[in-house]
From TrEMBL:
It comes from the Bacteria. Keywords: DNA-binding, Transcription, Transcription regulation. This is Transcriptional regulator, IclR family. InterPro entries: ArsR-like_HTH (IPR011991), GAF-like_dom_sf (IPR029016), HTH_MetabolicPath_Reg (IPR050707), Tscrpt_reg_IclR_C (IPR014757), Tscrpt_reg_IclR_N (IPR005471), WH-like_DNA-bd_sf (IPR036388), WH_DNA-bd_sf (IPR036390). It holds the Pfam family IclR_C. GO terms for molecular function: DNA binding; DNA-binding transcription factor activity. One of its GO terms (biological process) is negative regulation of DNA-templated transcription. It comes from Carboxydothermus hydrogenoformans (strain ATCC BAA-161 / DSM 6008 / Z-2901).
Length: 261
């Protein structure tokens, strides 16, 4: 799928293209891509794409396999990611609460944040010490209209903004339980706003459930989402309610961090 390139208003098109390339390669399905594939999928001129990739390669922000002629994320991004984690005090504290949530629920717990192009990305995770569990990758991104965290994030945006995003991104049917009707989708967001959390039961991935609650910044705007995800076969109404209460409490604790900043 070709991503339509919007009119550039940043004044730094090369920088924006570089960011798009790195974001593109961060998606699991795009982790190894040729120059032609990157240029095609991002709708970037091939020669411009090559020049940008060469600079990113020089700074080890991407790596290149001469045998397969494919690019992937570079090793220096690990250093930058580690530094970013160290310098973001709020994330350190938030991860402590996330760890407590994982220990209490015995489920994989994640912190999700919006990024460019109306996508969400995992920025922190805690996984239980269990033989069978859901595993996710930090940096993995997905459409904002997907899963419980997407619905939760959209539910607490101003409705006009949420509708504009849904119109632009669309609603993809991931499973036979996905909500694809726009009005039905927005009715589910209203329920989420009233109860304070979102539940997704095999709507994004077969066999997987998710429960999410919003984290707000000091202006009252939704900043990120806390989620608990696990195997759908392991839960019932009672455990769903228990997890929802714990996820909401964790989201409130992380929200309190922003109010103190």
């Amino acid at each position: 799928m070709v991503l339509e390139e919007k009119e550039n208003k940043s004044g730094a098109p090369a920088v924006e293209m570089a960011i798009k390339i790195l974001t593109y390669l961060s998606r699991y399905r795009n982790k190894n891509r040729t120059l032609a594939e990157i240029a095609r999928d991002l709708n970037i001129n091939k020669s411009s794409c090559h020049r940008i990739l060469k600079v990113l390669l020089d700074y080890r922000l991407v790596s290149y396999d001469k045998n397969t002629r494919q690019f992937s994320l570079g090793s220096f991004l690990i250093v930058l990611g580690s530094r970013a984690s160290e310098f973001n005090d709020y994330l350190k504290i938030a991860k402590q609460h996330l760890k407590e949530l994982a220990e209490t629920t015995k489920q994989t717990c994640v912190l999700v944040e919006p990024i460019a192009n109306n996508r969400l990305v995992y920025i922190a995770k805690e996984e239980p010490e269990a033989a069978v569990r859901i595993t996710v990758s930090i940096g993995q991104s997905f459409p904002v209209t997907s899963a419980s965290f997407g619905k939760c994030y959209l539910a607490f945006l101003p409705e006009k903004e949420a509708r504009e995003i849904v119109k632009e991104v669309g609603i993809k049917q991931f499973t036979d339980k996905s909500i694809t009707n726009v009005e039905e989708f927005f009715q589910s967001l209203e329920v989420i706003r009233k109860q304070g959390y979102a539940v997704s039961f095999e709507e994004h991935t077969p066999g997987v459930f998710g429960i999410s609650a919003p984290v707000f910044d000091n202006s009252g705007s939704v900043r990120m989402v806390v989620s608990c995800i696990g195997l759908a076969s392991s839960v019932n109404e009672e455990t769903i309610n228990f997890y929802a209460d714990k996820v909401k409490t964790t989201a409130q604790k992380i929200t309190a961090i922003f109010s103190d900043m």
